[in-house]
Design a protein that fits this description.
The protein has about 675 residues and is of the alpha+beta class. It contains 14 helices and 33 strands. About 20% of the residues lie in helices and about 25% in strands. The model has no long low-confidence stretch (mean pLDDT about 95).
């Protein structure tokens, strides 16, 4: 039996409909070698064994199918194939001689993901570091005190972040994003993912002060009076300028109105917008807690839970001591951080309802945001049982308000229990993208905290790791997973190519840009733009920004001196991604892998894309079995992109295919994308 010919997955070519409704029928197909005389059975999780019947033939392949009635319950299945005395199993990992329940295919009737998100090209923006277009809303020196420092306005946009810069601001704002929308459009961006935008005292804003409003330092400040803090004054009750800026409803309303205008402008350009929802914890400045006492006594604001035991928000937080009011310091902080009070959902139905309302508010008019990215989503609540229950309610509320909104979560490890169709749509794809790609190309852990020399260029290890981790997703979730090389929490991928282990306080900021390997970085981008999922560019990556892990990875966008050749490369790779449906929704298959190389395919009934990567320092020749991706045994494929040590080219060149194989010669650090379309 030709094992290499056997293939099935969850795409529409092998499952129709791809996202079936409860009570409907679904047709499941499998591909086999047409020369093999086989008996094929689909085995369901209830033990039912259903024969599959010959359906059609294409080239060297025969297709078998069966139609299965669905209920409302998730079903699991695998295939069993007999050819003479040979008996095989086929599951999501591939062909095997043994039954592997952990790799079964599955279908959750009624689970659907937004069609616009499949393969969508996303762009992540940490607003303070992207573009400063409105000097009137800049955070001022000594505007307030946070953690161990007064707020500081960084005067030189090109200054690298200090090792502790939580209250240092460069002035980036939403007006700056608005002014750069046409740049993002020209790059090919389809979705903007914003790091948190709500009122907050930090530059990262993962410590929300008010979930109902966009921070006026990002939005609009129309009322601006009050005093700054004296140098030796750490009491934020005296920070009346900050209090006015962030609590006056005129500033808050103006900022929300401008944000709605920005979203509308993005939509006019065909771009979606995703907000960052930090709902596990808030910040010590939050109006519900008010540890800084900046809301205390203000008209229109109820007493915070820190201030008064009679606060309507008392149960929003867990207090270890119940007799410490006023000014109760004994609240629970996330991971012990008193600036990040953990929200006590189990203790307050009002809190739960409030956050559910927030989830619906921002995806509804007048804001019309297109989805949420959920910060540390698995940590929310005090038990796994409650966590799942909350996200089920959150999904129901958000999807009712905006059925096309996407819900994606930050998660490390196996997220399958949240991806069963009733909670998240998908996740930030660390396990099945960022980490394996980083180890294969650079050997570097995503924080640059260690290097695994044995992982560099180990194509087979990369293949096995990817196949294993991708099976944790149902296909709809996989095709919208956020595939990043870099982000705000981890070192820049370009810096990882220099193999320097450590962080900025150990190595210094200059080391992040030394000995980098730009051709290797471009191979990462090529893989990002051709892999299943939503390729997500971290702002500035396309312009050559470097940086060790947080906070060095949060450098400003170099508008005065970007790497224009890298921008052009990103633009062309994004164009290729968007121009080929196979790269959005196509099936995925590894073709071959070994020392310093990997080749894989994305394919539909009408189009095949083949990617070949040489990540080593030596030239190599490969014979790639493109027939596996249903490329005709005799003919040619078009080279549509090649990137190497001396640049890249999108000149179309034909490469012959003989007996289903394509012979490829690759120079060091070279990747090639090939295309074949049926006429």
């Amino acid at each position: 039996m030709n094992r290499d010919a056997i293939f099935s997955d969850g795409t529409i070519r092998y499952r129709q409909p791809e996202e079936p409704a409860p009570g409907s029928d679904v047709t499941i197909r499998i591909r086999l070698d047409r020369h093999d005389f086989v008996t094929c059975i689909i085995v369901l999780d209830n033990g039912r064994r259903v024969p599959m019947y010959y359906d059609s033939q294409w080239g060297e392949f025969a297709f078998y199918q069966v139609t299965i009635p669905l209920t409302e319950k998730r079903i699991f299945y695998h295939f069993e194939i007999r050819c003479g005395s040979e008996y095989l199993f086929y599951d999501r990992f591939g062909v095997t001689d043994d039954y592997r329940p952990q790799y079964r295919f599955s279908i959750m009737p009624g689970f659907s993901t937004p069609a616009w998100a499949r393969g969508a090209v996303m762009y992540q923006i940490l607003v303070d570091r992207f573009c400063n277009s409105d000097a009137d809303n800049d955070v001022l020196d000594d505007e307030y005190h946070y953690i161990s420092m007064h707020s500081k306005r960084v005067k030189d946009w090109n200054t690298n972040p200090s090792s502790f810069d939580v209250a240092c601001f460069y002035g980036g704002d939403l007006q700056g994003v608005y002014d750069k929308l046409d740049y993002l459009k020209s790059l090919g961006i389809e979705v903007i993912y914003f790091n948190p935008l709500f009122v907050s005292p930090s530059n990262h804003k993962y410590d929300a002060q008010d979930y109902d409003y966009i921070d006026p330092h990002y939005g609009k400040i129309v009322v601006d009076d009050g005093e700054l803090l004296a140098e030796d004054d750490h009491d934020n009750r005296h920070a009346t300028r900050y209090i006015r800026r962030t609590t006056d409803r005129r500033n808050l309303d103006a900022s929300n109105e401008f944000f709605a205008k920005l979203v509308a402008a993005a939509h006019e350009r065909g771009m979606k917008v995703i907000l960052d929802g930090v709902f596990n914890h808030c910040g010590s400045f939050n109006k519900w807690l008010d540890r800084e006492r900046i809301y205390e006594g203000q008209e229109g604001y109820a007493p915070g839970a820190y201030v008064s035991g009679d606060s309507p928000y008392r149960e929003f937080f867990h207090f270890y001591e119940q007799d410490q009011w006023p000014y109760n310091h004994t609240y629970d902080g996330w991971w012990g951080h008193d600036t990040l009070p953990k929200l006590n959902y189990e203790g307050s139905t009002d809190l739960t309802n409030y956050i559910l309302r927030i989830g619906a508010k921002w995806v509804s008019p007048p804001y019309n945001v297109d989805g949420w990215r959920l910060d540390v989503a698995a940590d929310l609540g005090h038990s796994e049982e409650y966590n799942h229950r909350f996200w089920q309610a959150f999904r129901a509320m958000v999807k009712k308000a905006n059925p096309n909104a996407v819900i994606l979560a930050e998660h490390y490890g196996d997220a399958s229990s949240w991806l069963e169709g009733t909670q998240w749509d998908t996740i930030m794809n660390y396990d099945a993208f960022m980490e394996p790609i980083s180890f294969f190309l650079t050997g570097m852990e995503k924080h640059s905290d260690r290097i695994d020399e044995s992982a560099i260029g180990d194509g087979k290890r990369f293949e096995v790791t990817m196949l294993h981790c991708m099976t944790a997703f149902m296909t709809p979730s996989l095709h919208i997973a956020m595939n990043e090389l870099s982000n705000h929490d981890h070192s820049r991928f370009l810096t990882r190519t220099n193999h320097k282990v450590g962080r900025v306080d150990q190595l210094g900021s200059e080391a992040a840009g030394k000995d980098i390997n730009v051709p290797l970085f471009k191979l990462g981008v090529m893989m990002q733009m051709t892999w299943p999922g939503a390729p997500t560019v971290y702002y500035g990556d396309e312009a050559g920004v470097v940086g060790f892990t947080d906070p060095d990875n949060r450098r400003t966008y170099p508008w005065d001196d970007p790497d224009r050749s890298l921008i052009d490369f990103h633009r062309d790779m994004i164009f290729i991604h968007k121009a080929h449906e196979a790269l959005r929704t196509g099936s995925f298959m590894f073709l071959s892998a070994g020392r310093n190389y990997v080749s894989y395919a994305r394919f539909t009934d009408l189009e095949r894309i083949v990617v070949v990567i040489n990540c080593g320092s030596e030239e190599m020749e490969l014979s790639v079995p493109v027939w596996k991706a249903q490329v005709p045994f005799v003919g040619s494929m078009d080279q549509i992109m090649v990137s190497g040590e001396v640049g890249y080219s999108i000149m179309l060149i034909q490469h012959p295919v003989e007996q289903g194989m394509m012979n490829v010669k690759l120079k060091p650090y070279t990747g090639v994308v090939y295309s074949y379309k049926d006429v």
